[in-house]
Amino acid sequence: MISIYERALGEDYSRLHPELQKKFGLTSEARTSIICTGVMEEIWGGKVYMKPFLHLGAQKNITFSERGRNIPFTLENYAYRNAQGQECMAWIRKFQFDTVRNFDATMIYSSKKKGIVDYLGIDQDFVTDIDISVLENGGIRLLSGPLTFSKKGLNLKIPAVFSGTAEAIEWYDEENECFHIHVEVTNGSFGTVFGYKGTFTIEYVTCEDPPAYAKPRREAVVTAV
């Protein structure tokens, strides 16, 4: 069995740094989870008038309004099959401000779209396609597409003025034996919604079943995957 990311990248997967191949090669059959621990050198973005939106997003584990430097964080990855039998990868990010803030997502591979689909937050109300590519240094780049609001059978494209694009870049630093991460979510009208950059290390842990908090309140399914 190969991971959803190897399916998406095809032959290009072999161009990833071996440490990234291992990280993005997680499958439900492996019964292994990934625990990343590190520090965000900086978390930035979000103008004052955007705070109501950011507070609302925090309730759904999509955004948060806190900003700062040298913020401890963890990232947990769990590969599992959902109720529809789809192979999923849960991304549970926790930022240790005075209060813990989450930025969560669940990704699947869509055979119909021949790529990764990302369901954002704990409710999976917002969905986006992910363009995935390999960098020259063996790193990986994930770039989101337009957002769709999905709830109770309703699928509504979010107008560009209210939508955003997220770019995430990861690469492995052999000299310091750590991973680097750089993420930025931007809006064409309002600029940076939020961004963060930092470093982390990884621990691979035996896991028979993901914890309940790693699964969304609503398991979404892509039609004709």
From TrEMBL:
It holds the Pfam family DUF4166. Residues 16-200 form the DUF4166 domain. This is DUF4166 domain-containing protein. It comes from Priestia flexa.
